[in-house]
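User: We ran a pulldown and think these components assemble together. Before we commit to crystallization trials, I'd like a predicted model of the whole complex to look at. Sequences follow.
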Amino acid sequence: MIEKGKISAFQLALMMNPTIFATALLLVPAITAKHAEQDLWLSPIWAAISGLLTVYISCKLNKFYPEKSLIQYSEQILGKIAGKILGLIFLLYFLHLNGIIVREYGEFVVGTFLNTTPMNVVMGSMLLVCALAVYGGIEAIGRSSQIIVPVVSLLFLVMTLLLVKDLDPKKLLPVMENGIMPSFMGSIVPSAWFSEFILMAFVLPLLKDSGKAMKWGVLSVLSVMFLLVITNLSTYMLLGKLTIKDTYPVMVAVRYISIADFLEHLEAIVMAIWVSGTFIKISMFYYSTVLGMAQWLSLSDYRPIVLPIGFLILVLGHWAAPNLQSLAHFLGTSGAFYMLTLQLGIPVVLLCIAWIQQKFQQKKDGGQ
Amino acid sequence: MRAITFFTKLNILLQISSLLLPVTLLTGCWDRKELNDMAIITAAGIDKKTESTIELSVIVYIPKNAGVGEEMGGGNGGQGQQVLVRSAEGISIAEAISMLQQEFPRHLFWGHNEVFVIDEELARDEDLRPTIDFIMRHPQTRERSHIFISKQKVKNIFSLNPPLERDLAEVLRNLAGLKIGVDITLKDLAEMLIGESGTAALPYIDILSPPESQDKKQTIADIIGTAVLKNGKMIGSIDASTTRGLLWLRNEIELAVVTVKPDNTEGYVSMQLLRAYSRLIPKIENGKWKITMQAKTEDDLIQNGTTLNTGNPQTIHRLEQDLKADIDNKVKEALKQVQHEMNADIFGFAEAFHRAYPNVWKKYKQNWDDIFPTVEVTLETTAKIRRPGIVTEPGAYPEQEVKTE
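Assistant: Here's a predicted model for the assembly, 773 residues in total across the polymer chains.
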């Protein structure tokens, strides 16, 4: 195997949490609120279903091919040529998606804090740090998330607690004014985010205790769901319909915190949550892409391609969208289906084919 | 052998210098702005200047005078000034800011601006929504800044020299915090403007006239009532006493002393509000839209200017009735002026109906302006007086004059 490091299922769960939550925290409440309005807190609950499905699929596929990653077993399932093509599609997709994620990061930092800093500097410096993490291998990423994730989650919960006195629960009424549909519509975009759990398919072969993968995967999905429900609830109880109008409602909500004229101007903490969360997220995507690329090209080591791929991600981030509006528009419309197709649709098809093959194999074995 | 040591040395040197490289990155941020490059705005206000232009005034904090002011005492007026007021004209607030920047050698910094004041003339003549858009869109301005409507020109208000506080921004922010009138932040205002009824209430301020012997400028601006906005324009105002009624309806009442005149006695009794709570219960019956306001309050007696024996539970009960009547009157007055005369739903009736009757609301949402003045409001107020302070009977009357009832 190319990667020598091993991580535990618990570490995997910790790594996956910010992989979904970090970016979902900023853009998704506004996109969800557009459809679901005051029911937006229900949407993450529906969306978590796609996360659970993805975890199930990646664990099942891992059962069939324990030592292999998504790129490797698609070759075994679909045959050499079709498998290679699918592998390439996945790799290009992850490159593109990672470009988008890096761009989201850049847009937020430049748009709210460093207004005049060139975007490429912001994105590039983040990618450089991530490149170091990827260079260190999965253990480095696993351990840094063990440090970062608990701190970030705690900070986030403290933020929410500090907001409590400004919240107005009445804004959530009437619940399900137009039935259940709006909250379903609002859940499409978060589902796409949840389907990013497919990254587990790259990391599962590296687990020390793969038996616990399913359990921790499910817990990870539920933790993200919990955090998103809290985010949506507190944001809407504070901002009401303004949630739809703000680009980064959570950021506005945290800026609103004021305790005794003293505990104020806390947006730097959102920045800390965001930057460290996004660091894990980008590293995870980056690592999976690099590892997948090395497997696809049958290289003996993935390290030489870390920097070149990082450069490609930066370029793709630069090209991802001409401005924030089109980026948010893409994510709120076709982007969701693009992500769902590749992260959930194709893996489902792979699993079905693998399952049928396995049945035939068993029949053959049984017949002989 | 010698060659190897040379290369090892070079290697170590290279390693050390590569460790030092990141230090060059620590020199500062890309768009670094130090404190002494910034002009910190603590309050901003907009006046109507001509038909098409506005005038933006700002209060800027002068850090170098911060310590000096106190040491110098009042002796040297000009030197003790901790703030600076400047104005600039423009078609829009964005343009006025760029004109204003020309008057400052430092970058204008909005991150600490807590107060926005809008001149009444501008609020009455023009739609405020474009201005609100600018304030909300700017990444530096804060959603918790307080918004006021001013009876006088903002420029005149900003030129005041508050005797007690550092500057006028502090005065207005603290006044808003005391909840004497409505306390509206930028977030609340934006939320009200996009709300069901498109109306908003803002605190209405005026210059507090100083004692005659004093300098005209040695005073502050105080809240004299509430300005009522509809569709982004100011349509009227109510006075401080009527604002109490409004606060009751909005469940925002916090600080209040109520003075009533009991029947059959001379003098007045004052009570201080300890706890107050109200809620609106909407009901639609036979096509009639009704609201019941349930209000509860607990009070302490703080002054008894009559000869009533306040140690007597029956007297207390009587005073409770008077207190209830006083609250009801204020609420009715607010309803009369705002609901019937201005037809502006700043009480949150629309939201209350929307929450309770989502389906009916969808049908009648468009006609809310016709329905609102016809909404029947019933008041269910309960007032309790808990404690008579630390004396029971009237403090300064001889025993025989106290009415026992």
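Residues 91 and 289 of chain A are 6 Å apart (CA to CA). That may be worth checking against your pulldown data before setting up trials.

User: Thanks, that helps.
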